[in-house]
Amino acid sequence: MDLVIERARGVLTLQLNRPDKKNAMTAAMYQSMADALAQARDDASVRAILIRGHDGVFCAGNDLEDFMQRPPSEPDAPVLQFLQQISTAAKPIVAAVSGPAVGIGTTLLLHCDLVYAADDARFSLPFTQLGLCPEAASSLLLPRLAGYQRAAQTLLLGEPFDAHEAQAIGIVSRVLPLAQLHEFALAQAAKLVALPASSLRVTKMLLKQDAQVQVAQRIAEEAAQFARMLRSPQAREAMSAFLQKRKPDFAPFE
């Protein structure tokens, strides 16, 4: 099972479960996560949501073979359903990150409320390296968190950064030793469960309401550009190079 879904003591845990593929996301996984988040919205027994991977691996981004076979070209594509659900979730979302968090593995964290990272976590947003553009409203949310210059360095170059830099940027709430990560994140989710659900819901609404419409618009704008760029020669070269384990050559393209 590529996504393990557990409900216990008020916490809905979504565990990415393709460790052999570094938890690379498929369309089926996006759909399962979107459906689970939608169900949690109306399930009074769910008071908090925890998203996690495994020790040493959170999410390596999209599974490129699956992605090329099922590109997100329609408004109801599974990845866009997932982004709509996570960006509008009324209940608090906690994330626990260990190892690589690539592409969507980083951008989904921008929609979580509490993000905890192990000291082995590595983040990257390599969209330009793949001939693509940012997604998940990261082009809106990252400059707000980090300031323009830091966001530009992160999104234009797409180079990896560690957990402490992610904390300095504002993506990560706290950095922990790996041995403590998952227990600590679950304990934080349990603290949320113990608080009044209405207070958490209203507080989260107040924190996010000014940006809510802008986030939805930016997700749609990015998705349209992303779909167009996915068909470009640059993206095809980048994907082919990745699958062939070679360095891409963008020299022939403008």
CATH class categorisation of the domain at 3-178? Alpha Beta
Mean pLDDT, as a whole number? 95
Q: Major sheet: order of its strands? A: 1-2-3-4-6-9
Order of helices and strands: EEHEHHEEHEEHHEHEHHH
Low-confidence stretches: none
What is the annotated CATH architecture of the domain at 3-178? Alpha-Beta Complex
Distance between termini? Answer: 42 Å
Strand content: 5-15%
Instruction: List the total number of helices.
Output: 10
Rg result: 17 Å
Summary, kept brief:
With 254 residues, the chain is α/β, with parallel strands linked by helices. The protein has 10 helices and 9 strands. It holds the Pfam family ECH_1.
Describe what this molecule looks like in 3D:
The protein is α/β, with parallel strands linked by helices and 254 residues long. It has a domain at 3-178: 2-enoyl-CoA Hydratase, Chain A, domain 1, CATH 3.90.226.10. Helix content is 48%, strand content 15%. It contains ten helices and nine strands. It has helices spanning 27-41, 64-69, 78-88, 104-107, 138-146, 148-157, 163-169, 178-193, 197-230, 233-243; strands spanning 3-8, 11-16, 48-52, 93-97, 100-102, 114-118, 122-124, 161-162, 174-176. The longest helix is centred in the last third of the chain and has 34 residues, at 197-230.
